[in-house]
Specification:
645 residues, mainly beta, Neuraminidase, 4 domains, 6-stranded antiparallel sheet, 4-stranded antiparallel sheet
């Protein structure tokens, strides 16, 4: 326990604090941080946070300028008080960079025995009188019982500002600190999203971590020129690994997180190397990286399977751009990449014990912006055809490659990225350059469908598919890193505490149709189911799909509200409905029991009426019938020329 320490970190010009744990985390240990007004001798608790040490430390939040005491207590796995300490600190307007709390041995009763025993969840919040119950879910929002704004203190994902899990795309900015988000890569593990990307402003490598809708960001490698062609993966122990290129020196680097710090090592410095990196982790936590070697004009492979990094050439001959790697259940490697000389898409695997390569698609100029993903034994690839400017999909499962075009609408396929879900469905994100839109394509329904994630985005993107689909991408308009999530439908939880399960941007109490609700226009609070309908104004106020009142839901507004429905209580009666002859009911609302196609007020003979020609409004029973014109206008079946029939 003596090896543990606590540091509160604050961002520049921000009084918001995060807890950083330095040293060992004893299994079963718990900790409590109390922020006291007026220093360590203070009795007023401004913030209290309690958590299990094996879990992520909760966020402290904003602190106003002033003098505080930062008091920490640590209990060991047997629920005995082991360490304690307090630091007095005066915070100024722009926040302090760090507050270090020194701990020393302590004994006595554990102040958080209930948490140590596992009977309570993480607790944090404001001054709750010592009970520690204001923020049971640790989301930084006090419960309503403590006069807070948390609508569900048992759900850490539910609080004002939370991200609704609803149908359609939810989007938010992850990092806007400078020009950030190019060369992005992503992996999602156990509901935690890990992202590596480049900070173009200073030429550095950055990392973002997202959990329960909350994001933290940091700089991994600040050296100018680092952070290009990132690829990220997480090993079985939870350590994050990133490979990337130093564009100034054309070298390949590897960074990994160890106890909260990043270790950086050089992998390959043999000439112009390290572009188009793709990283995967094998069954034994061995790292495998494929990348382009510009000096050799070759596709290269690096692995630390033997302990030290070992490098080899997979295939030479101006190959290796747009490399993408996947590893199957037998630890065999599968790579797709571009053959520049032949303008082909190629595939290589070492499943037989040696590298075997072949062409996948050689029809036209193809194989740029390639990405690979496996669905069991099936190999899936998306890539761009430069010839047609379209996005293609190739798939092989034990036989020949099957190739089809996914999207040919516009100039598409830039920055393509691919993921396969648990059901084996493919999900791809890519950019359309002529409209500058980030698009999403999936065959989850059995056929490929395409939709827009966001306009003015790309071409850098990465995708992951689990219970929902997540995409991180570069926002070209604002030079930010963005994150989008697509959910299949509402989940019954009001994550943003607005009283609605789903997105309710206009605050009318109805979730948008895009998020699974019934609001047809979430930008106007006066348009929602149940709203008063103004007939004939061209606006569907009550979201029933009709301009006017449609009480019976047949898609036709009532005649009283300007529509053609003569009986708005009967969905079988409206303009254009089939009219059953002779039943005494005017189903098609033409004021007749029968069919009156020509609108002359007489039903056709076929529908039981006296109109012998329902295509001529001048012909019906009793109509004026001029003599000797050869037309039976009055439908009496007589030739009246000469005064006889």
């Amino acid at each position: 326990m003596r090896g543990i320490g606590f540091v509160l970190m604050a961002g520049c010009n921000s009084p918001a604090y995060e807890i950083a744990i330095v040293g060992d985390r004893p299994e079963g240990g718990v900790a409590e941080l109390r922020v006291l007004a007026d220093g360590c001798e203070g009795v007023d608790v401004v913030v209290r946070r309690q958590w299990r040490l094996q879990d992520a430390a909760p966020r402290v939040g904003d602190l106003d300028p002033g003098t505080y005491g930062f008091s920490v207590s640590v209990c060991d796995g047997s629920c005995a008080l082991a360490l304690a300490g307090c630091a007095r600190k005066k915070l100024v307007e722009d926040g302090e960079g760090r507050v270090v709390i020194a701990l020393s041995s302590a004994s006595g009763a554990c102040p958080i025995a209930d948490l140590c025993a596992g009977d309570a969840g993480p607790d944090g919040g404001g001054d709750d009188g010592g009970g520690g119950a204001c923020d049971r879910d640790g989301d930084g929002h006090d419960s309503a019982a403590c006069d807070g704004d948390d609508c569900d203190d048992a759900q850490a994902s539910a609080h004002p500002g939370g991200l609704e899990r609803s149908r359609g795309w939810s989007r938010r900015t992850v990092d806007s600190d400078g020009d950030v988000g190019t060369h992005v890569s992503m992996v999602a593990v156990d509901d935690v999203v890990h992202v590596a990307y480049r900070e173009e402003s200073v030429g550095a490598l950055r990392y973002a971590r997202g959990a329960a809708g909350a994001w933290t960001t940091e700089r991994i490698d600040p050296v100018d020129g680092r952070g290009a062609w990132t690829s990220i993966a997480v090993d079985s122990g939870g350590a994050v690994h990133v490979t990337y290129q130093d564009v100034n020196n054309r070298d390949l680097y590897h960074a990994t997180s160890t106890e909260g710090a990043w270790d950086i090592e050089l992998v390959d410095a043999e000439g112009d190397t390290g572009a188009y990196t793709s990283l995967e982790i094998g069954a034994g936590d061995d790292l495998h990286v494929v990348y382009r070697d510009g000096t050799r004009a070759a596709l290269r492979h690096a692995t630390n399977e033997a302990g030290a990094w070992v490098l080899e050439t997979i295939e030479a001959g101006d190959r290796g751009r747009f490399a993408s790697l996947a590893i199957d259940a037998d630890d065999a490697l599968h790579v797709v990449y571009r053959d520049e000389a032949a303008a082909d898409l190629r595939y290589a695997t070492d499943g037989s014990g040696a590298w075997v390569a072949e062409a996948v698609d050689s029809t036209g100029d193809v194989g740029t912006h390639a990405a690979i993903a496996l669905a069991g034994e099936a190999v899936n690839v998306v890539y761009r055809s430069e010839t047609g400017g379209d996005l293609r999909w190739a798939r092989r499962s034990g036989g020949a490659w099957a190739i089809r075009t996914v999207d040919s609408a516009g100039d598409v396929g830039f920055g393509a990225t691919l993921a396969i879900d648990a059901a084996g469905a493919a999900h791809a994100a890519y950019r359309r350059s002529d409209s500058a839109a980030l698009l999403y394509a999936s065959n989850a329904s059995g056929a490929w469908s395409i939709e827009t994630i966001e306009a003015d985005s790309g071409p850098w993107a990465a995708i992951a598919a689990g219970d929902d689909v997540q995409v991180v991408y570069f926002d070209e308009a604002d030079l930010d890193l963005r994150w989008a999530r697509r959910m299949p439908g509402l989940d019954g939880i009001d994550q943003d505490c607005d009283g609605v399960d789903g997105n309710d941007a206009d605050g009318d109490g109805h979730a948008s149709q895009d998020s699974g609700g019934d609001d047809c226009d979430d930008a106007r609070a006066d348009l929602a189911p149940g709203a008063a309908e103004i007939a004939g104004d061209g606006i569907d106020q009550d979201c029933d799909g009709v301009d006017g009142v449609d009480a019976d839901g047949d898609g036709h507004a009532s005649s009283g509200s300007g529509g053609d429905d003569c009986d708005d209580a009967d969905p079988a009666r409206h303009g254009g409905a089939a009219d059953t002859v002779g039943n005494g009911v005017d189903e098609n609302c033409d004021d007749l029991d029968g069919v009156d196609s020509d609108g002359d007020g007489h039903a056709s003979r076929a529908s039981g009426g006296d109109d012998c020609n329902d295509g001529d409004p001048d012909t019906y029973g009793g109509a004026p019938d001029p003599s000797c014109d050869g037309v039976d206008q009055n439908c009496d079946d007589c030739n009246e020329c000469g005064g006889y029939c």
